[in-house]
Amino acid sequence: MFHNPVARRVIFLGIAGLIFGTLLTEVAFAVMPGMTTRPPRQIVLVIPPGTAERVSQGQQPPSIPQNMLFVVGDTLVVRNQDSVVHQLGPMWVPAGSSASMQLNVAQKYSFQCSFVSTKLFGLDVSQPLTTGTRMEGIIVGGIPMGIVTVLYSLLLWPLKKTPPSS
Question: In terms of residue numbers, what domain contains 101?
Fold first, then answer.
C-alpha cells in the first residue's frame, strides 16, 4: 500500500505507539483508587444501635468505615438506628431517622462526625470514569506516545539515503 519507507515507518510506529499509550492509560485508570465506571446511586450508611456508647469508650463501630468512596451525583443517606442524635458534617440525624446529602462536587471531604471514634469522617468524591475520560486519556497519552515512538525510531534507525533514479 505504502511504498515510501518513511510513510510506512510513521504509520506503523505511530499506530504501535498509540496502542501502547492507550494500554498505559487503561492500566492507569484500572489501578487508580476511586476510579469507577458505575453511574451515580444512593448509598446508605447505617449507624447501628449502641454506636454512641462504643464511640464514648474509644471503640470504632465495626460496621462503619473510616472513609468512603463516591462518584459525583451519588446521594449519601445516613440512617440512624442509635438512641441518640448523630452528626456528619452539616447533617444532624435524630435517633430513628435518616438524612441525606447529594455529592455533586469532586473533592475529598473531611467532616466532623459523632459516630466514629476519630471524630472525623472522610468522603472521597471523584468524577466517574466515562468514555469521554478514556478518550481524553488516549489523546493525551496515546497520540504523544505514537509521535515519540516515530521520532525515537528515526534516531535509532536512521533512514538510508537512496540514490536518485534516472
Answer: 42-126
